Structures are given as C-alpha cells and as structure tokens.
DNA sequence: AACGCGGGGGT
DNA sequence: ACCCCAGCGTT
C-alpha cells in the first residue's frame, strides 16, 4: 500500500464525517440510542428506501415500544404492521429473534458479534449496522450504497453481485473507520450513497471526497460499480374468483389464507389459479373451468361467470403476476364453515386481515364499485 | 453460486 | 423497460 493510498483513506474518513455532521438527515431512528430501535430500523431498511420506511418505523415502535412487547405480541399483529412493506419473512424473523433475545439474553440486544449475527434475519450487513450504530463498535456495515461508493472512490472493478466482493469491501470499509467514529462513519458512508453518490447520475460536484475519488478522476464514475445483470422476471398468468356471498353472507366475499411458507406466507388472497400461458389467459372459458375444477379439488363447489370484473398486475422481484378476476358464486355455502383456510370478508372486517397489495387493491376496488351500483 | 422473497421510486 | 433500494435464508 503506497503512502498515497493511506492519505486517500485518511482524507476519505475525515471529509466524509465532516460532511455528514453538516447534512445528515433527521431520521426517526437517529433520534434514538435504543439498540432495539436501531435493529428494527435496519431490518425495515433491508432493500427498502428510507422514505418508505419512515412511517412504518414510527407506527411499529409506537405499537411495540420495547423488545419485550414485540416478543409478546401475536404474530398476526406484527405482520399487520408490516403490511405493504414487503419481504414479510423479515417481520417473522424479527419477532422470532426478539423472542430469542428475551429468552437467551435477558431482553437486551446483545453487543457480541457472534450473538448478534446469530439472530434470525440478521446477516453480515445488519450485524455490522447494529454493532456500529448502536454500540459504536468498529465493524463494517456494507450494503449496496457502500459498495457503490467504495467501487467509485477506489475505482474497483470487482463485480458487486459476487459474495467475494462483499467480503473484500468489508475489509476495506473497516480499514476506513476513523478511531472511535464507527457509528457516524458507517451512516455517513450510506448517506453519501443515498444522497450524492447515487446509482444513475452521481452529483460529483457536491461530493465531499471528490478531489481524491479515483473513479471520478479517471472519468469512470458512470461505469462503476460493475454489477452482473439480474435475470428478467417471469410472467405468471392467473385467474381469481370473486365469490359473492348470499343469505347471511350477503355483501361478503370469500377469501383464502396462503400457505405457512413461501411467497406471501400466511397472508390472505382471492382464491385463484395459475394458467399455463398468455393464450390460456385470453380465454375466459379456460379461467371459468380452471377455477371451478381447482376449487372443487379443495372441496368447494362454485360457479364462475365468464365475466371479468377486475384485473391487476403484481410485480415481484423474480416474477410478474397478471391476474384476471372472474365473478363467481358458491353453490353450497354451508360447506365452507369448517374450512379454516377460507373466510368471508366485508368492508367491516377487511382490516382484520393481512393483505398483499394486489389483493388489497382488487378488493377495495370491488367494494367501492359495488357501492356505486 | 443461484434463487426466492415485495413493493416502490427514479431514469 | 430497466435498475436499485441501509439484504437474508435456503439450496
């Protein structure tokens, strides 16, 4: 390592800290020193923008002010406060880990690296974030922001999609932490990535470390970081049944609980099926027959109309759901009573359930349109 | 190493 | 249309 590189590192840490103390955003979790609050914020911030997280964080800590209260709450309640935020296993893992902290560590978030990283839902990044931000320990917290900033500043061409690159970045990031400044430095690094050293068009003119940024000095800030492409999302075609109740269930709609594991685990949905391709999806007859047969297999005899009363698209990271909703009725409603996976909902009890956004939208639209008829 | 896992915003 | 976001768990 040349003297020049050492100077560059010292400069980086000092200038970045000076800048951060001047411009840092006033975020809810930065007003607290409670490790539990730091932890919650870091889990919510995984793959999720700051602006999206803020209202969720405020509601969450209001409802679950302490780790113990989170541990004692019904899981359903925790999920409800996560509704719309996505990656729901984060919420389940967070509560599971909170219960572990209560039973294993007396309800105090541990400050030992191995204990922290052993908590469910806490990986390398979050371990570093908790240790550095909550306890000011000199641990790196390398996320997408940090890899982008370091790739540019040091002009590194390593593919940031590779795990080995993250390991290298952690070593580098740790070597940059100014003595006793881990908490602010790590947040400053991410703040720079979020506000200045942005993915598309970085604001190099406003960057506190621009004079020694190798990527920029070589005019390559737009090419960095190097990242291999993700696979394109696959289209999935689906038909859903909007089953309207009769008699004592008049005004209600039949909904179904998703399986315990996997995509949107334990959340509620309109009963629906997948069809092979776009061609099948064009045919309403295909949807009608498919729904009737599939639900018959689950013991529900229904009649579906070849009439589309709603349509929606739901975009996940790895797939795209294209859903057409057919109007339908249940042939024998008494038969449903003892099926725990199925329930009747109305606008009155709608909020007692946890919905993926796509079904929240479809049902809300349905209830509104019906009132206008 | 590759894949599954939400939802939203920026360009 | 594509990319990215204060990533992690499973296989």
UniProtKB/TrEMBL annotation:
Residues 44-195 form the HhH-GPD domain. The keyword Protein biosynthesis does not apply. Keywords: 4Fe-4S, DNA damage, DNA repair, Glycosidase, Hydrolase, Iron, Iron-sulfur, Metal-binding. GO terms for molecular function: 4 iron, 4 sulfur cluster binding; 8-oxo-7,8-dihydroguanine DNA N-glycosylase activity; adenine/guanine mispair binding; metal ion binding; oxidized purine DNA binding; purine-specific mismatch base pair DNA N-glycosylase activity. GO terms for biological process: base-excision repair; mismatch repair. The keyword 4Fe-4S applies. Its EC number is 3.2.2.31. Binds 1 [4Fe-4S] cluster. It catalyses: Hydrolyzes free adenine bases from 7,8-dihydro-8-oxoguanine:adenine mismatched double-stranded DNA, leaving an apurinic site. Gene3D superfamilies: Helix-hairpin-Helix base-excision DNA repair enzymes (C-terminal), Hypothetical protein, domain 2, Nucleoside Triphosphate Pyrophosphohydrolase. It holds the Pfam family HhH-GPD. Its cofactor is [4Fe-4S] cluster. Adenine glycosylase active on G-A mispairs. MutY also corrects error-prone DNA synthesis past GO lesions which are due to the oxidatively damaged form of guanine: 7,8-dihydro-8-oxoguanine (8-oxo-dGTP). Belongs to the Nth/MutY family. NCBIfam families: mutY. This is Adenine DNA glycosylase.
């Amino acid at each position: 390592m040349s003297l020049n590189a050492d100077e560059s590192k010292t400069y980086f840490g000092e200038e970045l800290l000076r800048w951060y103390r001047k411009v840092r955003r006033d975020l809810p979790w930065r007003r607290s020193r409670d490790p539990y609050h730091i932890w919650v914020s870091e889990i919510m911030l995984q793959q999720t923008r700051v602006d999206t997280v803020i209202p969720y964080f405020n509601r969450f800590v209001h409802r679950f002010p302490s780790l113990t209260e989170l541990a004692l709450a019904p899981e359903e309640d925790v999920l409800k406060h996560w509704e719309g935020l996505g990656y729901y296993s984060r919420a389940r893992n967070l509560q599971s880990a909170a219960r572990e902290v209560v039973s294993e560590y007396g309800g105090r978030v541990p400050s030992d690296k191995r204990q922290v990283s052993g908590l469910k839902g806490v990986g390398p990044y979050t371990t570093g974030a908790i240790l550095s931000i909550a306890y000011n320990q000199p641990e790196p917290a390398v996320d997408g922001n940090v890899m982008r900033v370091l790739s540019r500043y040091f002009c590194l061409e390593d593919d940031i999609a590779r795990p080995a690159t993250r390991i290298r970045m952690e070593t580098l990031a740790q070597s940059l932490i100014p003595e006793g400044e881990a908490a602010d430095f790590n947040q400053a690094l991410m703040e720079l990535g979020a506000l200045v050293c942005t993915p598309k068009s970085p604001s190099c003119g406003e960057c506190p470390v621009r004079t020694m940024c190798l990527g920029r000095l070589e005019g390559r800030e737009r090419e960095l970081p190097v990242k291999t492409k993700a696979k394109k999302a696959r289209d999935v075609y689906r038909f859903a049944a909007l089953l309207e109740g009769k008699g004592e269930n008049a005004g209600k709609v039949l909904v179904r609980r998703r399986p315990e594991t996997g995509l949107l685990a334990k959340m509620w949905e309109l009963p629906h099926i997948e069809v092979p391709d776009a061609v099948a999806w064009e045919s309403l007859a295909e949807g009608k027959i498919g729904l009737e047969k599939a639900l018959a297999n689950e013991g529900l005899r229904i009649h579906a109309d070849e009439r589309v009363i709603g349509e929606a698209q739901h975009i996940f990271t790895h797939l795209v759901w294209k859903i057409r909703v057919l109007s339908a009725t249940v042939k024998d409603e008494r038969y449903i009573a003892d099926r725990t996976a199925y329930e009747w909902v109305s606008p009155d009890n709608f909020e007692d359930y946890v919905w993926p956004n796509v079904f929240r939208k479809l049902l809300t639209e349905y209830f509104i349109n019906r009132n206008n008829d």
